[in-house]
Amino acid sequence: MELNLPYPRRFNEHRDTAEAHNLDWLRGHGMLTGSEAVALYTRWDIPDLAARSFPDLGAEDLCLATDLFSFYFLFDDQFDDELGLHPSAVAAACDPLIRIAHGEPTGPSDSPVTSSFRDLWRRSSAGMSSRWRARAATNWEWYFAAHPNEALGRTLAAEAEAEGVDPTIPDRAAYLMLRRGADGTETVLDMIERFEAEVPPAAFHSPQLRLMRQLAADAPAFSNDVYSYDKEAPRGDVYNLVVILQHQRQCKREEASVAVLAEAQWMIDQYLQLAVEIPELCERLGLRRDERLAVERYADGLIAWMGGYFDWESRTARYRPQGSLPVDRPGHLEPLLSARAAGTASQR
Q: Domain of 295?
């Protein structure tokens, strides 16, 4: 089943510039070392995701978007191995990153992850309002704090397997609670405001726009659960909707996958229906011309993000056998979470 999003696809002309910058940025922060790691990472084609999701950005902003996307995937993969079975260790690794987002001290030394995120947060939040910064920091906290809880679910599943019993599969409510934090999409949607224009509070918190934002976050997450199943299920990840539906319905993977994609399509259809209400919403809220334009650009940015993600996901090698090996396995990447000497790259 293919998702249908009737929206014209566009591609950013600065894609090659962003790709060259991104490789230099990852190397400079120690996030990508060795020819094998570079070759594997290149097959994911993260610049393609940024170019499809943000077709109108200038070169500098597209570089930032590409760096942001690369951080998500490389950071997430740090927990594919042994570390991902130790929730307390994951929490300790994530705590400095939460502190960075809230402007708190993190200690005298940096790891590649803290160095790169410090730079991302500086570039992302520069010039933004205090309201945006507070909301974005909270969403980053949600993202980082979700990882130790994912590790906990993975650990409980492993313990159940060792004891010869069925693992506890979360229900839909628990799944959504954790998934909405762990996928990091809220921080991506914050960046749409960063790249376009901040949305006035009355519109941002309207039922229509809040629902549109939630749909634009959930539809790609649901689709990702189908594509990432081969990567997640074997390592005991229970926070995957295909896994959950298999358990609930006692059905095969194929049936569960079709059901998940059908939900994602329903979300797309709901989004398109709500988008029709935006002009009247702006009119009734009495928004100025520039405020209306900000809302319209935000709504367009949400749908461009969805279309870009769906197109990239169907093309990338990340979820195929040739690109699914975790990049932090020995010989591919130095551990990204271990401390190193302070000041190496944090000010780049």
A: 15-323
